[in-house]
Structures are given as structure tokens and as C-alpha cells.
Specification:
Strand order of the largest sheet: 2-1-6-3-4-5
Number of helices: 12
CATH topology of the largest domain: D-amino Acid Aminotransferase, Chain A, domain 1
CATH superfamily of the largest domain: ATP-grasp fold, B domain
Order of helices and strands: HHHHHHEEHEEEHEHEEEEEEEHEEHH
Number of strands: 15
Number of domains: 3
Shape: globular
Largest sheet: 6 strands, antiparallel
């Protein structure tokens, strides 16, 4: 009887997953169609290499449609390794980003527990589940605004940010020191411990605002412009590889560099060359000029090897995740610093607009591994 119940459960669960995937593929197809209307890309006709693409990816998801291939191949060429984003989200990443560890790794207050201090901005004051602590995690029993100010006053600028749900730069506040206090920059929020506790639901951190290198500041001095770096820890060797890099820059007079705030990005090679004669926005629209800068000219990122080595070192420290999206900056001394890592999902679209398929030369290795794991569950 137990075996019958188990089999019925497996069948019902399989049917529900199939229904969900079919529906989500339709959603993604609509996204590609909507974006193609903005950029003028046609998705109506099959493209050369489509059959090979479908054969490759249907090994791990039988509902794969040609939509992602028709869309991204018009940016990075007809490459069957282009990753269907729904397969990445719902088939691959559950194996590479174990859900039971995500809450821990997503907590920005845990970064100093996982990584060397030299990798990060200095944290001066924390609130962890409503408990106030200093930068070294020592509880503060009689915390008040004066003590918080004392911890921060040697810095000209500080940022306050939530330690949960920080995607897209949401709710990050910048303050500048003036006389004996800190005044808001670009917002009207007070530098108040109780306000931060309520605003961030008992979880926040106050950090120094790092100054960026002269190279990255050239593209927009008001935002901290970062490198989005995709790392992959091989399922065969456990070696960490850097597979994709884009340079992100904010729009003039904005504080953050993400696309939702009007920012753009451009692909970067491992030797530091910009891969495109234009930047991209979140819809895949191309701009030869952005912030008054002509991207048809040649630019080369300095200290690129340092960024690559740094990114691999971070990937080696985040033990439970095989792939990471890192946001890395070059500070004023041209040293790489980690702004954050992302363990929820890879931003596949930034790479597949500008530099190449997400898993590149390791695509078949990934598909083989996932195919084997899926068979184990049957």
C-alpha cells in the first residue's frame, strides 16, 4: 500500500511540475517577445542551429522552447550553449544553490564571518534580529545614537543597508559626515538607530562608503561602478572558474549602478578589454554613447588579473554554492573589494547580451551532471 501511495504522489507531483514548467515557458516567451518589440529583434522565424540547441537542452527539460535561442543568438551568435533561463532557474540552480543554506548566505551580516576583512568594506555597527552589535559582532547592551555615531565618525561617508533582501540596491541609504553628525545624501531619512531598526525590520549594517578607482569613476563618479562576475565551481574538479564578466555603470547623478535605476553594462574579457562597442540596458537596447562617453572607443580595465584571482578566492569560500554572481569593485587603491555575492539566481541575461553563454566551455559538463542527478530522482 505504501508503495502505491508513493507512486501516486510521484505521478501527481510530476504532473504539477510539468504544468508549472509549461506555463513558465510561456511567460518567458512573452518576456522575450516584449523585449524584442523594444529592440526590433524578430523571433518569428527559426534560426540556424536551433535543432542542435533543442536537442542539447531537452536532455534536462523536455519543454524547452526555441525562444531563448532565437533571442540571445542575435546578440552573441548562434551558439547552442545559450542557457534557457527557466532551465537555469528551475532545473540547474536548485542543485547548485541548495535552498537550505540560502537564508544564511543571503544575510549580509554574515559576510565578515565567511570572508577575510580585507575583501570587504569595514562594518562599524550592526543589528541582527533586533540585537545591536559592533563590527566584530560584540553585543551592545546600552546602544544609542551617540554610541552609533561614535563608531562611525572617522569616516566621511557611510552607507546603511538591509542585510536581507538587498537586490537592486533597494533601501540602501548614503550619509555624509557634517560637524558632529551625519546628514542624508539623496534622501530624507534620519541617521537614527531606532529608525534603522524599524525601517530594516531589525536587520541592518552600517559600513564605510568605499571610494572607487579613478578608472571606474570615469564612467560615472556618483555611483560605485562594479564588475558583475559569474563564478562556477566545477562538478568534476571543484576548481572555481570565472566564466562571465560585465562592467556596470550608473546613470549620471545616481548612487547605484544597477539597470533598474537607469544603469547600463558592457561585457569584459579576461584580459580586461571591453567586448562590445556599446553598452546595454535591461531590455537589451544598445547605446554607443552613455553618460557622454563614446563606447566605440577602446577601453581596458586595469588590474584585471587581480579581479579574476579575487573572484575565484570568494567562490572558494562559499562552500555550498557551485555558482555565484559577485559584485566586485576596484577601490581607490585599485584593490578588488566585494560589495555582495548573489546565491539566489544568476543574472544570465547580462552575460548572454554581452559576453557569451553563461556556462561557456563547461556547458556540457553541467548538463551531464544535472541529467545524472535527475535520473537519480526517478
Amino acid at each position: 500500500m505504501a508503495q502505491i501511495v508513493k507512486r501516486v504522489y510521484q505521478l501527481v507531483n510530476g504532473l504539477s511540475k510539468n504544468f508549472y514548467l509549461r506555463h513558465r515557458y510561456k511567460v518567458y516567451e512573452k518576456i522575450y517577445k516584449d523585449k524584442s518589440k523594444i529592440t526590433g529583434i524578430s523571433l518569428a522565424q527559426p534560426r540556424e542551429g536551433e535543432a542542435e540547441y533543442l536537442k542539447k537542452w531537452r536532455r534536462i527539460s523536455k519543454f524547452v522552447s526555441p525562444a531563448a535561442y532565437r533571442y540571445y543568438s542575435q546578440y552573441i551568435g548562434k551558439d547552442p550553449r545559450i542557457v534557457p533561463e527557466l532551465v537555469l532557474r528551475k532545473v540547474i540552480e536548485p542543485y547548485f544553490h541548495p535552498s537550505e543554506y540560502q537564508q544564511f548566505y543571503n544575510d549580509k551580516n554574515m559576510y565578515d564571518k565567511l570572508l577575510p576583512k580585507s575583501f570587504l568594506a569595514e562594518s562599524m555597527f550592526r543589528c541582527i534580529e533586533g540585537v545591536y552589535c559592533d563590527g566584530d559582532y560584540q553585543p551592545i547592551t546600552n546602544a544609542n545614537d551617540s554610541l552609533m555615531l561614535e563608531k562611525c565618525k572617522r569616516h566621511e561617508k557611510v552607507i546603511v543597508k538591509p542585510t536581507h533582501n538587498t537586490g537592486h540596491g533597494n533601501s540602501i541609504l548614503l550619509f555624509e559626515r557634517k560637524n558632529d553628525g551625519f546628514v542624508p545624501m539623496g534622501h530624507d531619512k534620519p541617521f537614527s538607530m531606532q529608525f534603522f531598526k524599524e525601517y530594516y525590520n531589525g536587520n541592518f549594517v552600517i559600513q564605510e562608503c568605499l571610494k572607487q578607482s579613478s578608472f571606474t569613476a570615469f564612467f560615472n563618479p556618483t555611483s560605485v561602478n562594479t564588475f558583475r562576475v559569474f563564478t562556477y565551481k566545477s562538478v568534476k574538479t571543484n576548481e572555481v572558474h570565472v566564466l562571465g564578466i560585465v562592467f556596470r555603470m550608473g546613470k549620471t547623478n545616481t548612487f547605484v549602478d544597477n539597470c533598474d535605476a537607469g544603469g547600463t553594462f558592457i561585457g569584459v574579457s579576461h584580459d580586461g578589454r571591453f567586448l562590445n562597442p556599446n553598452v546595454f540596458d535591461h531590455n537589451g537596447k544598445k547605446y554607443t554613447t552613455f553618460n557622454g562617453i563614446d563606447f566605440s572607443k577602446e577601453y581596458k580595465v586595469p588590474y584585471m588579473q587581480d579581479i579574476l584571482d579575487f573572484s575565484k578566492a570568494v567562490g572558494e569560500q562559499i562552500y555550498h554554492n557551485r555558482s555565484l554572481d559577485l559584485d566586485v569593485m576596484l577601490d581607490e587603491n585599485n584593490k578588488p573589494r566585494l560589495i555582495e555575492y548573489n546565491v539566489d539566481a544568476c543574472t544570465a541575461w547580462v552575460y548572454q547580451y554581452s559576453s557569451g553563454p553563461v556556462y561557456g566551455e563547461y556547458t556540457d559538463e553541467v548538463i551531464d551532471y544535472i541529467e545524472t542527478e535527475l535520473k537519480k530522482r526517478k
